[in-house]
Write a structure and sequence with these properties.
This protein is an alpha/beta fold. The chain has one domain (24-133): 2-Layer Sandwich (Beta-lactamase Inhibitory Protein, Chain:B, domain 1), CATH 3.30.1450. Helices cover 30% and strands 28% of the residues. It has helices at residues 2-21, 56-60, 68-75, 126-133, and strands at residues 26-27, 52-53, 80-84, 87-98, 102-112, 118-123. Strands 1, 2, 3, 4, 5 and 6 form a 6-stranded mixed beta sheet that branches. A hairpin with a 5-residue loop joins strand 5 and strand 6. The protein is globular, with a radius of gyration of 18 Å. 18% of the residues are buried. The model is unreliable at 1-22 (pLDDT under 50).
Amino acid sequence: MLKTVSIAVLASVLSVGSAYAGMLNEHNPNMRFESVSPALPELNERFVRNGKSVSVGLVRQIELGATPEQVSSLLGQPVRVTNRGGAQVWDYNLQFKTAEDGDIVCQYKVLFAGARQVDETVWRRPQCRELVLGHN
């Protein structure tokens, strides 16, 4: 009986851990990222998306459970802070150097759960996610 209960407890702990493990560096373009689509004659400073130049290594340091202070020490202040379903959402425009394309500006969201800890991070563009995960 004890062995059966221990296996059940271990299985539930592992499943909870794996549920959280997949929440960093998600790709979800439907997560209400700000879109910019002007006609070329309308293109002005408002539509230029400049990102804060950061290294991939800094973004890789963001972990589940990190505090807002830890995130801002790595990435600086977000460009926008909103609330979504009880979570605080920080939006960043990050600029990375790439070997192929030169610079790439990536939209990145950091979601803080009720305990004010990182609960999820999301990329708008899959190539940004792949760059940070090292799959490029």
